[in-house]
Amino acid sequence: MNAEAQRISPAPIRKSLRVRAGQRKAFDTFAGAMGSWWLKTHSLVESGQKDVIIEPRAGGRWYEIGNDGSEKQWGRVLAWEAPGRLLLAWQLNAEWTYDPDFETTVEVRFTPDGDHTIVDFEHRDLDGFGANAEAVRGDYDTGMDGGWQQLLVNYQAAAES
Amino acid sequence: MANQFAALAEPMRARIVETLGRRPMAVGELAALLPVTRPAVSQHLKVLKEARLVCDHAEGTRRIYSIDPAGLGAIRAWLDRFWDQSLAAYATAAEREDSQ
Questions:
Q1: What's the gap in Å between the CA of B30 and the closest CA on chain A?
Q2: A141 in contact with B at a CB cutoff of 8 Å?
Q3: What DSSP string runs through A118-158?
Q4: Are residues B82 and B37 part of one domain?
Q5: Rounded Cα distance, A78 and A60, in Å
Q6: Same domain for B98 and B62
Q7: What is the pLDDT of residues A65-100, one digit of tens each?
Q8: What is the CATH number of the domain that holds B2?
Q9: CB A138 to CB B24 under 8 A?
Q10: pTM over cut 0.80
Q11: Facing residues of B64 across strands?
Q12: B93 and B57: one domain?
């Protein structure tokens, strides 16, 4: 097809945080215990999320497990360089469906800083969402504001408990 | 909730957006390309326009629809908030486990 479709390249999402944990623990919590902190409301399994697994090797799967044992793949591991770096392919497309042909990149770097660790997070290659991304937008506009409001309440309760 | 993720735009609307992603088109062209009536296309476009997924402009007597480039920005904004919250939860978890 012709290439006059409007395309914009969204800037990568970058976050940097400093956690009060050693590098190894910071890595292990992120990569090895994602299910312990992932927001349970952000799940694709129908039965509720039981755990999130990142298989500890390049080529490994990144997936969630439901309470009924069902699995939903989210992506795969591009590089597992414990404890310094994790590179993941986020392969949920704009319709929140796993698509092996769709790929955005999540990179997380863990840098020791005394007894803390600097965590540099980047979610990039977002233009892969392309035109289909727009389809989700309406859903967010109509339904997600309320959803996020509730999530924030849930998160705050959890963080402060 | 899973359905907040999964309950997406009605499939024909997704197809309309996908089709407009290839090139801007008028209502009649969309109706000719897709298995849907012209009034239905118009209705879908109205919803998509209200959601700022598509925009339109006049070309002579025709109204041409195209992807609203702000849409991707909205996805990015959503992801940005999503990761903010997720990473805050992560930091809490990392610090909690470290102290044990």
A1: 15
A2: yes
A3: EEEEEEE-GGGGTTTHHHHHHHIIIIIHHHHHHHHHHHHHH
A4: no
A5: 8
A6: no
A7: 999 999 999 999 999 999 999 999 999 877 678 989
A8: 1.10.10.10
A9: no
A10: no
A11: B26, B57
A12: no
The pLDDT of residue B41 is 93
| Domain that includes residue B90, residue range | 69-100
Q: Look at chain B and report how many structural domains it folds into.
A: 2
A135 CB neighbours in chain B (<8 A) are 8-9, 13-14, 17-18, 53
Taking the domain A13-130, which CATH number applies?
3.30.530.20
Least reliable range by pLDDT among A25-39, A146-160, B8-22, B75-89:
A146-160
What tens digit of pLDDT does each residue of B27-66 get? 999 999 999 999 999 988 887 787 667 789 999 999 999 8
Query: What's the residue count for chain B?
Result: 100
pLDDT category of residue A112 using cuts at 50, 70 and 90: very high
Nearest to A30 by CA among A105, A99, A80: A80
- For residue B88, CA distances in Å to A37, A83, A108, A132, B94 come to 9, 20, 14, 29, 10
| Residues of A whose CB is below 8 A from B20 | 5, 131
Residues of A in contact with B13 (CB under 8 A): 135, 138
Instruction: Name the β-bridge partners of A111.
Output: A118
Residues B37 and B74 reside in one and the same domain: no
Residues B86 and B51 in one domain: no
**A65/B contact by beta carbon, under 8 A:** no
pLDDT category at A138 given cuts 50, 70, 90 is very low
